[in-house]
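Duplicate of #3305? Posting structure anyway:
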């Protein structure tokens, strides 16, 4: 992977940060497509301000066909290993994390081809906040399960609010569940009814 990145001048492979990784560390993940090309995703650890994930489409001859950079806010807090890049049916899903003072959000970008980040609309898939939704003494945790069929996407959300002193999150003070249906358009996915998203400030 480093040889490939260096040969195409995609990242600074001479940077000292690369010496933190040995041959046993997975630097990225890829999916082979039916037409023989592949789409790969990997973190560029050299970026100084905000972490960047590279989306790369290449062929079996190592020719780079497309490259796009997807930016996180502060840190990729919503990633665990390479679980932030997945494929469901005909669509790829990339997690981009929103971070700030005491919160981490999971924003899903869904696509079939490698396209610029600003050309797509994201879907909120998760959120954790140390300041809760109803007061600073609460912790707010939102999780979701995704279901996709053709050009229709369902997000099944579960919201739980915990007392700040409940450090192991055993008993939520408040719980809510709801489902939002999204339909695909040119910018990605659009909620058919945004009532619940607006109620919980998902935008």
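Output from current build:
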């Amino acid at each position: 992977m480093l040889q490939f990145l260096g040969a195409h001048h995609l990242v600074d492979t001479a940077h000292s940060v690369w010496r933190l990784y040995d041959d046993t560390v997975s630097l990225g993940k890829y999916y082979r497509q039916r037409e023989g090309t592949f789409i790969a995703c990997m973190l560029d650890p050299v970026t100084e301000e905000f972490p960047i994930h590279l989306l790369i489409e290449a062929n079996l001859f190592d020719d780079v066909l497309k490259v796009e950079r997807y930016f996180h806010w502060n840190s990729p807090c919503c990633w665990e290993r390479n679980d932030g890049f997945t494929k469901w049916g005909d669509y790829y899903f990339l997690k981009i994390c929103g971070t700030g003072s005491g919160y981490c959000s999971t924003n899903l970008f869904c696509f079939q081809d490698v396209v610029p980040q600003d050309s797509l609309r994201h879907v909120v898939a998760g959120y954790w906040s140390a300041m809760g939704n109803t007061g600073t003494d609460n912790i707010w945790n939102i999780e979701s399960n995704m279901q996709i069929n053709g050009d229709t996407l369902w997000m099944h959300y579960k919201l739980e609010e915990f007392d700040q002193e409940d450090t192991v999150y055993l008993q939520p003070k408040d719980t809510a569940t709801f489902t939002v249906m999204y339909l695909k358009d040119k910018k990605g996915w659009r909620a058919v009814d945004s009532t619940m998203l607006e109620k919980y400030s998902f935008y």
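Confirmed duplicate; merging threads. The first strand starts at residue 28 and ends at 32. The mean pLDDT is 84.
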